Amino acid sequence: MMSDAPFDSDDTHALYVQQLFVRNQQAVLGYVLSMEPNFADAQDIVQEVFLTVSRKAQTWTQGTNFLAWVCTMARYSTLHFQRTRARRVARLDEDVLELLYGEDLPNEAREHEQEVLLQQCLNRLSPRAREIVWLRYHNARKPEEIAPVLGWTPNAVNVALTRARSFLRECLEHQIAAARPL
User: Is 154 left (phi over 0), alpha (psi -120 to 50) or beta?
Assistant: First the structure.
């Protein structure tokens, strides 16, 4: 059983931090999955975050928000993963993730609000653009696979996806700005 008593050694503190991580691992995985939809990749990222947390255990101060500390590391690890590996599965652009999450740790109410805003923006897309976004992100199809379904060229699909992402980014920026209190 973990106590809230001061730590008698660096090893005890590191062990305590690792135990806290294990207790919060599902929340961390959920946070990573909100940015990296591939479950296997998200699990790999969480394992990497555990190693980082273990290495940096001494930088966490008891009494501060542990989950916020870990999710900050998870966020950077996820973004690093997405930048350094050529991924085949499409995901939201990094600037859209930044817009959605900012520097704050998401909570259920905020996540729900963001989902509502994103759904409102998706509903404003033309039916064809919405279909292309659905095929690309929900069904994880590549533009080369979408093109025959629509009778388009892969380049035309890429152009339509770029326009749809740009529209969604602008719509989200507008929606979030409108939702902020003055």
Answer: alpha
- Taking 70 as the pLDDT cut, the residues of the chain under it are 1-10, 85-112, 179-182
pLDDT digits (tens, 9 = 90+) for 149-168: 999 999 999 899 989 988 98
Q: Nearest Cα to 77, choosing from 117, 31, 113?
A: 31
Domain that holds residue 158: 94-179
What tokens appear for 84 in the block?
């350094």
Burial class (CB in 10 A: 0-12, 13-18, 19+), 145: middle
CA distance 122 to 169: 11
Q: What tens digit of pLDDT does each residue of 45-66 get?
A: 999 999 999 999 999 888 888 9
In a domain, 28, yes or no: yes
CA atoms of 93 and 83, how far apart (whole Å): 11
| Cα 43 to Cα 21: distance, rounded to the nearest angstrom | 14
Question: What is 44-68 written as a DSSP string?
Answer: HHHHHHHHHHHHTGGG--TTS-HHH
Domain boundary among 57, 84, 111: 84
